[in-house]
Design a protein that fits this description.
The structure is a homodimer of 280-residue chains. Chain A has 280 residues and is of the alpha/beta class. Chain A folds into two domains: 73 residues, Arc Repressor Mutant, subunit A; 165 residues, Glucose-6-phosphate isomerase like protein, domain 1 (Rossmann fold). Chain A is built from 14 helices and five strands. Chain A has a five-stranded parallel beta sheet with strand order 2-1-3-4-5, with helices on both faces. In chain A, helix 2 crosses helix 5, helix 7 crosses helix 13 and helix 13 crosses helix 14. The longest helix of chain A has 22 residues. Chain A is globular, with a radius of gyration of 21 Å. Chain A starts with a helix and ends with a helix. The relative contact order of chain A is 0.12. The structure holds a DNA duplex (30 and 30 nucleotides).
DNA sequence: CGATTTATGAAAATTATTTACAAAATTAAT
DNA sequence: ATTAATTTTGTAAATAATTTTCATAAATCG
């Protein structure tokens, strides 16, 4: 996890009031922070040292010193110019460059908002799953579908249904050895939330994949995985986030495959043969 | 500000004995320093806190905290390592970093293998299309599906069928104002080739999306778009290529949307409203 | 509206950093 | 080789910074 400033922007909405003040001050004066003491920062933010420390802990940092070090590191990295967005004056070459930068950035951000411990837990339950149900609607359905095609390859029984009734029926038949993965960029898709609730009722493990921050889906899931919530470019729905989600699926898949290396190796050989008959 | 580590190397000869020990330790373990206290560093260097402080002053730094901040900033220069591939000894953090690098690389490659003129032609025919059929099997089906969900948003009638018979039926009903987009990583998927052949028979425009190189699909399509063919990591199917393909779809979509800016603007507003009722 | 949870800051406790100073080591001069 | 001067160093005290505790205030919930 590297760019702490970006992290702060992302989490801003979920901060407590005093934390918001601190976040704002830091984002307004990042280069000053590294030269300030906790007491100076506290008074500059009209808050207390304790709140600064809590703020650091909220960010999963060891303490104020850690914050300073992370900010110093963040400031040393320069950003590609994605700010302007895409407009009608842009040439095809411009658009290619911007979309490329944008999608690369979305993937990069994933690693910054990824909680490795949470990821590890997800890999654990997925590795031990007797069956996995992937659930997502609309664009997130693509991600769920992609996940299914991948995990099928290593012989883990898994489902993805487009129809919410089928999703619910399937979830209602899960057991405690099974896993339901709910994918929703906003975290508010009621169908997905309902499926995870149904899965939970059956004592199955539940994993969410959403944008950073609180949401109904995050509330209901046992394990929460996040992708970046920056969707500034052009006026369109969750475009880059979908690539970030797929990137996360790749990570989960490879991690599970590595964990089950010996048995999986064989399956990959088999399915590689299967798709070489009908290349995709 | 100069890179402090570089600075230390330069000044090394002019240091006092105890300072040399400190300098050596810092250069040997720069990433550890930022997590150490002055006491820890002193004992690690077999010297005293006072010497550390003097060392900092020698470097014209305010003190030990300043040293940590400067080192953190120096370390924030990037290092990506894709060489080794992923193996069972890799930690979760390693896997995350490698997949992230890998997928970013796949996207970056897209822009290098993209023929802008060919892309421009593709954008032209897509912009003028009365109807678009997207066709792909397996993992490429995900890309076709994604493309459909996007182009639907700007009110271009389009189809994606999983069933090859339906794909062929749909293609058989295309006219010369329509476009068929065939997606296949290898370019050899017979179903996709057949669909484009059927489309061509009906005088529809045909676009292929494949890895670079000759293939049956490239032979049959009017316009050929390529993604990079690097698939070195881990032993698995076209994993990163799918992200590269999606990136290409993003480019096509945004380019078409920009081209039809005025009318499209309104549609995006509408569909944005539609999905805010049911957030994905 | 009361009960419970959550958020906050003052102050205490802890920990880290810096400084002062004396001892040790080194150097230079006889 | 011995001594004085100088430089370097570590200990311990002083200072400063950070973290924790805890009581209270604010917000939220039933």
């Amino acid at each position: 996890m590297r760019n702490i400033l970006f992290n702060i922007v992302e989490l801003k909405d979920s901060f407590r009031p005093s934390e918001k003040k601190i976040a704002q001050y830091i984002l307004d004066n990042p280069e000053q922070i590294v030269d300030m003491t906790i007491t100076e920062l506290a008074s500059a933010c009209n808050t207390s040292e304790a709140s600064i420390v809590r703020f650091c802990k909220t960010l999963n940092l060891k303490g104020f010193q850690d914050l300073k070090v992370k900010i110093a590191a963040s400031l040393a990295v320069k950003h590609s110019s994605l700010d302007g967005g895409i407009d009608r004056e842009d040439s095809i070459a411009d658009i290619v460059q911007k979309i490329v930068d944008f999608n690369k950035e979305a993937i990069e951000q994933t690693s910054h908002v990824t909680d490795l411990e949470e990821l590890e837990r997800a890999v654990d339950v997925l590795s031990n799953a007797k069956r996995i149900d992937f659930c997502g609607m609309g664009a997130s359905g693509i991600v769920a579908y992609d996940a299914m095609t991948k995990f099928m390859r290593i012989n883990i029984p898994c489902n993805y249904y487009q129809d919410n009734h089928l999703q619910l029926t399937s979830a209602a038949n899960l057991s405690e050895d099974d896993v339901a993965v709910g994918i929703s960029y906003s975290g508010t898709t009621s169908e997905v939330v309902d499926v995870l609730k149904a899965a939970k009722e059956r004592s199955a493990s539940t994993i969410s994949i959403t944008k950073v921050g609180k949401s109904p889906l995050v509330e209901v899931a046992d394990i929460n995985l996040f992708v970046s919530s920056q969707e500034a470019i052009f006026r369109m729905g969750a475009m880059a986030s979908r690539i970030a989600q797929l990137n996360l699926i790749d990570i989960l898949f490879v991690s599970v495959a590595i964990k089950k290396y010996d048995e999986v190796f064989e399956y990959l050989e088999n399915t590689s043969g299967a798709t070489s008959i009908r290349k995709i």
